[in-house]
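Researcher: We plan to redesign the surface later, but first we want a full-length starting point. Tokens attached.
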């Protein structure tokens, strides 16, 4: 894996991204409107100043032309400035999924274009607050100098 970014002035940066699993089922019919299922989970590790975002993503269409399932992982680095750890929550829960989605979108477009049928171009989306709330509930935290992992609380 290649490092994507280094932390310089930003308190939060994507370090690595990869697709863990991917499957596609295609039928040779005209695609309908895409329907998304987006299930994120995360791990905040204060010892390594790392955040791991895992997304189980599924997109289908109304005409049953395709079903795509994708599991991807984004590795982020963060800096905690004294007294500002609460400021990072928006990066974990709002920004991280929005940073990763273009990679998922591009991957799906590329693979489907090579599949011999019409390419699936997912629309740009603004992530609703419900995704951030879901991610918050599905995020675990490893506190500094502690091997125990706990569920994050907002």
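Model: Full-length starting sequence:
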């Amino acid at each position: 894996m290649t490092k994507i970014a280094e932390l310089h002035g930003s308190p939060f940066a994507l370090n690595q991204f990869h697709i863990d699993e991917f499957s596609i089922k295609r039928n040779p019919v005209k695609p309908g409107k895409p329907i998304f299922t987006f299930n994120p989970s995360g791990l905040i590790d204060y010892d390594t100043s790392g955040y791991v975002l895992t997304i189980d993503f599924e997109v289908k269409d109304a005409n049953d032309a395709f079903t795509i399932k994708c599991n991807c992982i984004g590795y982020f680095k963060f800096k905690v400035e004294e007294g500002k750890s609460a400021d990072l929550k928006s990066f974990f829960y709002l920004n991280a999924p929005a940073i990763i989605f273009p990679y998922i979108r591009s991957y799906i477009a590329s693979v489907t274009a090579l599949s011999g049928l019409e390419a699936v171009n997912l629309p740009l989306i603004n992530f609703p607050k419900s995704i951030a709330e879901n991610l918050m509930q599905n995020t675990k935290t490893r506190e500094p100098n502690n091997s125990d992992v706990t569920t994050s609380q907002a």
